[in-house]
Design goal:
Number of helices: 14
CATH topology of the largest domain: Rossmann fold
Helix content: 25-40%
Number of domains: 2
Distance between the termini: 53 Å
Radius of gyration: 24 Å
CATH architecture of the largest domain: 3-Layer(aba) Sandwich
Strand content: 15-25%
Number of strands: 13
CATH superfamily of the largest domain: P-loop containing nucleotide triphosphate hydrolases
Amino acid sequence: MSEDKISVVILGNGKSLKKALITNILEDDISVLSTRKILTKTTIYENETYVFTCMPDLDVQCDDIKQQFAMNPDPDMCLLVVRCDFSVENVWNQIEYLSKKSGTPTDTFTVVLPLSSKPTEYPFKNMTMEQLYRELPYKQRGLSHKRSAADPQSMTALGDLSLNSCLRSKHEWMEENHFDTKVNLVLLGMTGTGKSASGNTILGKKFFKCKPSTKPVTTECQRAESKINGIHVRVIDNPDIFDDDINPRVWDTHVKKCKQLCESEPCVYLLVMQASRFTDGERNIIEKLEKAFASKVRKQTIILFTRGDDLHCANIKLEDFLHSCQPGLKEIIQKCDNRCVVFENSRPTSHQVAILMEKVIRMIREQQQ
């Protein structure tokens, strides 16, 4: 690899998307570059300033990524392209896959955000096209490439989506992703599933008492509030209301208190279950949930699996777990329209909260339409 050239590794899915990124960086057609093939399915595009290594799509079965990083473990940039309708969860899965495949840390990879996205809303390393222009070494880009600010009108659309479909005003983006009111996240589940620990992970602080115990730690409904990515979130932690032996008066008190704490804001119910355990008491948990909060509750429910570290240790992805889980659990998942997230409360990170909040926002928006 020539040391006097900028080495850029381009990763992601969609050949046209990766080529469009090169075109945008060059401000010229990709045909002006010299081209050669290396490894199995990797293409090198090169001129006097850049060496672009365009890797195959992530679902292609080959060892090009592993071999490329063995040959050049320290490129100037590793850029991951994504579509305008990307999901945080899928992008994070791609980054973890690339990290494992290349043997490099996850922050090696920088996601190039579509023009419609803000650079501060995501748990992974990212930059806009404007930031990318500023990041590229100015002395090698040359005066002809100088830009005081990126001009969207001059940019080639990234991917098979047209430029106009990617462009939205800041006001439109804020309308789509933020709320003027609070959002209630209601934690529900059986004793020992990790409701309180999940609440603390969401809030980023230890608000709720939690510890290993054979007896219920949470005995009263509690709430705590925080701002997450500009959204005012109220988290409500509840005792186990699904216990068949619970006193009816106690059950009624807990349910009424929970509803009172929710006030009038939109509610999302987080049904907390352990990924590594499915009990007989959970088989009819949706019916118990509907008894407490009416039949529409399943349309407002996301299943939050705890003990994600058990899946991680077994090298099982969430998608594979959901596909292979036992029929009773699969039925519960289907009743909640397959809305699921997984938490590792022993290692709380912002990216798992971002994935949850993305699902929360999408679900509330769908209900408001």
